[in-house]
């Protein structure tokens, strides 16, 4: 992997500045998992924008390397549309955006997601509630000027594109290729042997991973890895492909220690360096 080779005279700016918009009062851990995964995958600088009331969680959990960005929130403890001006300023000094993990489903939060994606030109990884916010507003994907990676599991895919879930599960390759091509995106359709495609000539079926990774936060980890690879200069398809492989490989290594039953998302993060080393 080209991104593993670093210049002797490197500095953190060489490896990308990521802005992660994630977390809510109900799902504060999602932001932390995504951020730590991005850092362990080589990102140079990671800023995490969360509702102001949960910003202290970042400090309490002591991920010292993360820059925390407290933002305006709704009464429900989710990011508010009122946070947009501050976010817009930080986007100007970022290389990659990750949006969605743990945001929850407040209408003001969804409006914020849509506005950011509409106006941002950065490469972006969209996951979880970031995907749900775009349901019935798919024209926004065509308006986004930068590369983007969508990371749905089948149920999120069904909600996002209004497709029957059973049909998706029976036609995973066809569905992933169709919607990736239509919206000029890279799609990671997650699940057993995740599918990564641009809908045209680029298509990859991932063979790493195990059932123990079907656990809360695993998708947040994948988003962090994909964002880190984008930030280090990979194109969106390559970033998605290698992120999915490394994510699964780290999960396999973690399962060998913890068992599949005992595996949790933070175990996957702990083995990312080992997975990277094996691929170097």
Which topology does CATH recognise? UDP-N-acetylmuramoyl-L-alanine:D-glutamate ligase
Order of helices and strands: EHEHEHEHEHHEHHHEEEHHHH
CATH architecture assignment name: 3-Layer(aba) Sandwich
In round numbers, the mean pLDDT is 94
Major beta sheet summary? 9 strands, mixed
How would you characterize this protein structure?
The chain has 280 residues and is of the alpha/beta class. It has a single domain, classed as UDP-N-acetylmuramoyl-L-alanine:D-glutamate ligase (3-Layer(aba) Sandwich), CATH 3.40.1190. It is built from 13 helices and nine strands. It has a nine-stranded mixed sheet, with helices on both faces. α10 crosses α11. The mean pLDDT is 94.
Features:
280 residues, alpha/beta, UDP-N-acetylmuramoyl-L-alanine:D-glutamate ligase, nine-stranded mixed β-sheet, 9 strands, globular
Overview in brief:
This protein is of the alpha/beta class. It has helices spanning 28-40, 55-60, 84-91, 107-119, 129-132, 139-143, 154-161, 165-170, 172-182, 218-231, 236-258, 265-270, 272-279; strands at residues 17-21, 45-51, 67-71, 96-99, 124-126, 148-150, 186-189, 195-197, 203-205. 45% of the residues lie in helices and 13% in strands.
Question: Helices and strands in order, then pairings?
Answer:
Blueprint: E1 17-21, H1 28-40, E2 45-51, H2 55-60, E3 67-71, H3 84-91, E4 96-99, H4 107-119, E5 124-126, H5 129-132, H6 139-143, E6 148-150, H7 154-161, H8 165-170, H9 172-182, E7 186-189, E8 195-197, E9 203-205, H10 218-231, H11 236-258, H12 265-270, H13 272-279
Helix pairs in contact: 1-10, 10-11, 11-13
